[in-house]
């Protein structure tokens, strides 16, 4: 008997830049790219019209097995490539690590605070 530990499926195939960091926010994918942009992808369905906060609680962090389309591209998200991201659920914040640490309010992605001198973090 063969055991399959996970299912493999393609969510998106048209990202024009190199992806450096990936995080999910509800059923949305947040991609930090090598050009410093943040690309937000959502499922290509009528359910994607929900707000990200409502979608987050409704999906409880589950990605949908269907094609994802770009919902938004934030080109000046960071000056350097985004190395890592973390969604802080209770506070509805996104923490991004690049040349500095930055806190962004979800779902608007507004920058709240930036901690410089984070080299090597």
Automatic annotation (TrEMBL):
The lineage of its organism: Eukaryota, Viridiplantae, Streptophyta, Embryophyta, Tracheophyta. One of its GO terms (biological process) is endosomal vesicle fusion. One of its GO terms (cellular component) is membrane. InterPro entries: Vam6/VPS39/TRAP1 (IPR032914). It comes from Quillaja saponaria (Soap bark tree). This is Vam6/Vps39-like protein.
């Amino acid at each position: 008997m063969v055991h399959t530990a996970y299912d493999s499926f393609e969510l998106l195939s048209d990202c024009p830049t190199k992806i450096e960091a990936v995080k999910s926010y509800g059923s949305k994918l947040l991609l930090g790219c090598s050009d410093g942009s943040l690309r937000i992808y959502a499922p290509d369905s009528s359910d994607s019209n929900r707000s990200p906060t409502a979608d987050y609680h409704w999906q409880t962090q589950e990605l949908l097995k269907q094609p994802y389309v770009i919902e938004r591209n934030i080109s000046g998200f960071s000056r350097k490539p985004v190395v890592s991201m973390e969604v802080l659920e209770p506070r509805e914040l996104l923490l991004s690590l690049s040349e500095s640490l930055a806190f962004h309010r979800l779902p608007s992605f507004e920058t709240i605070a930036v901690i410089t001198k984070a080299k090597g973090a």
